[in-house]
């Protein structure tokens, strides 16, 4: 059965189940392109990506379509780093199968497969549609188990708006940073108190999970998904797990401009992170007055340079606790702190636990009460992408540098 989604004359083809030819196995195709309505033959030069869409009664189908349209448009206009051509195909599911309509418009209708009876395929991306809170009831155990299975197979999982309630029911978002529509925030926090809900984010990424609010920038999110799908973010899991949101504009923009004051001094700090650095030295490096340096740095990052440097040292110590077996006191000194006792005090203040406990539990303990100054920069689980990029460019001057452990 071929499922057709028709929207004011524009057709999007769902390839469920897969169309097969003789001598082609189930996993091998061929598939039909949702972009060209022609058969896709897997092989050299073609990389087929499977997108699964989870819908439900009275969900808003338009949001899904907009995201798919933007993803397809950007994919067509932006060649990847590899020579392979990426083709996307979609599979549309609902809780019970059959026709699903959108309350937003009578022009939109989908025929779907029932998730309980359909065998899941190898999935690259799962998109859970947005809907009103009234449209989302607590899912049955069979749905929760199905979602867990699909999420474990998916490279990335996107929950649009209220779709996060279905995803949260699986328990896979425990201790993760998420966002949702502002009207749903209090309900989400009450129902799932272990989530770290960012109220001001347009969209939020934590690991392979993406969540969105009503302020979502479809193009920006599609670009992020496309970069991740093409593998252009790198294979380092610490980067992939970084929490990314558009409300962190100062760091996202400043740290992509090598000539900015914040970029230059942060690079210098990392190179000399084991030393007793002060703001006068930092200003001298930039050939500025200390007063001017402090003012410009805060304008660019929202932080005073002394606080930012302290939090930077703390974050490097935190990651070194996981990436190395060095004693805590030695980690502290190599990150420019006095000793392990000073690190312990800073760790408890900003992360809410001790370095020893953090290392022993391997980040699994409850860290919901992060200090806001730290939590707006870091998530206490993985280095943010901007810092990971810095670490790939810094050349440690000493063989004992802590950066050697963090660059592995």
UniProtKB/TrEMBL annotation:
Domain HTH araC/xylS-type: 263-361
InterPro entries per record: Class_I_gatase-like, Homeodomain-like_sf, HTH_AraC
UniProt cross-references to SMART domains, sorted A to Z: HTH_ARAC (SM00342)
One of the record's GO molecular function terms: DNA-binding transcription factor activity
Stored Pfam families: HTH_18
Residue stretches spanning the membrane: none
Origin: domain of life: Bacteria
Keywords: DNA-binding, Transcription, Transcription regulation
Gene3D superfamilies: 3.40.50.880, Homeodomain-like (1.10.10.60)
PANTHER family documented for this protein: ARAC-FAMILY TRANSCRIPTIONAL REGULATOR (PTHR43280), HTH-TYPE TRANSCRIPTIONAL REGULATOR EXSA (PTHR43280:SF2)
Official protein name in the record: Helix-turn-helix domain-containing protein
Record organism: Brenneria nigrifluens DSM 30175 = ATCC 13028
């Amino acid at each position: 059965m071929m499922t057709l989604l028709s929207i004011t004359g524009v057709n999007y083809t769902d390839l469920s189940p897969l169309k097969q030819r003789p001598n082609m196995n189930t996993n091998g195709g061929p598939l039909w392109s949702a972009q060209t309505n022609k058969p896709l033959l897997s092989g050299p030069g073609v990389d087929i990506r499977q997108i699964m869409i989870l819908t439900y009664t009275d969900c808003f189908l338009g949001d899904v379509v907009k995201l798919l349209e933007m993803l397809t448009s950007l994919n067509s206009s932006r060649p990847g780093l590899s020579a392979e051509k990426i083709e996307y195909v979609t599979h549309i599911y609902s809780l019970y199968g059959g026709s699903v309509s959108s309350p937003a418009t009578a022009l939109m209708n989908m025929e779907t497969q029932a998730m309980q009876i359909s065998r899941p395929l190898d999935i690259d991306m799962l998109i859970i549609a947005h809907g009103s809170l009234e449209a989302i009831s607590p899912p049955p155990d069979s749905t929760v188990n199905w979602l867990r299975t699909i999420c474990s197979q998916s490279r990335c999982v996107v929950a649009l708006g209220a779709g996060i309630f279905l995803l949260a029911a699986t328990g896979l978002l425990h201790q993760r940073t998420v966002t949702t529509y502002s009207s749903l925030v209090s309900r989400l926090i009450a129902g799932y108190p272990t989530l770290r809900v960012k109220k001001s984010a347009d969209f939020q990424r934590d690991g392979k999970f993406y969540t969105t609010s009503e302020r979502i920038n479809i193009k920006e999110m599609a670009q992020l998904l496309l970069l991740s799908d093409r593998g252009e973010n790198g294979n380092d899991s610490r980067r992939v797990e970084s929490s990314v949101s558009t409300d962190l504009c100062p760091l996202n923009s400043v740290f992509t401009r090598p000539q900015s004051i914040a970029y230059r001094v942060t690079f210098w700090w990392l190179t000399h992170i084991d030393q007793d650095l002060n703001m006068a030295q930092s200003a001298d490096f930039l050939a500025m007055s200390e007063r001017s340096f402090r003012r410009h740095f805060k304008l660019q990052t929202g932080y005073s340079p002394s606080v930012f440097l302290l939090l930077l040292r703390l974050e490097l110590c935190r990651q070194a606790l996981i990436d190395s077996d060095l004693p805590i006191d030695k980690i502290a000194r190599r990150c420019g702190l006095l000793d392990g006792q000073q690190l312990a005090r800073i760790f408890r203040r900003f992360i809410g636990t001790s370095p020893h406990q953090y290392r022993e539990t391997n980040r699994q303990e409850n860290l919901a009460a992060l200090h806001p100054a730290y939590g707006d920069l870091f998530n206490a689980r993985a280095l943010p992408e901007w810092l990971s990029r810095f670490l790939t460019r810094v050349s440690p001057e000493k063989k004992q540098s802590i950066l050697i452990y963090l660059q592995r």
